[in-house]
Design brief:
Layout: H1 2-11, H2 32-46, H3 61-73
Length: 75
C-alpha cells in the first residue's frame, strides 16, 4: 500500500489518502485519463502488466491491491 500511495502521489495533483474502501468516485480528479496514467504508472512501479478487462472489474483500492499482489506472484 505504501508503494501504491507513492504512485498515487505522482499521478494526482491533490493528495489522495488510500484505503481499501476508496473508489474512483471518491476522487474528483480521477478521470479516465488519470485512470490510464495510474495504471501505466502502477505497471512500471511494480514491473507487472494487467490483462485486458481485469482492471474494470475492480470495485475499490483493496481489490486493486489484491490484483497487484496476484500479478507479483506470477513473476
Amino acid at each position: 500500500m505504501t508503494r501504491l500511495q507513492t504512485v498515487f502521489d505522482d499521478v494526482f495533483l491533490e493528495p489522495v489518502k488510500l484505503s481499501p474502501q476508496l473508489t474512483a468516485k471518491d476522487v474528483p480528479e480521477w478521470t479516465s485519463l488519470a485512470h490510464i496514467s495510474l495504471l501505466l504508472s502502477v505497471e512500471k512501479e511494480f514491473g507487472i502488466r494487467f490483462r485486458v478487462g481485469e482492471v474494470e472489474k475492480m470495485q475499490n483500492i483493496g481489490e486493486f491491491v489484491d490484483l497487484i499482489l496476484e500479478r507479483l506472484k506470477e513473476h
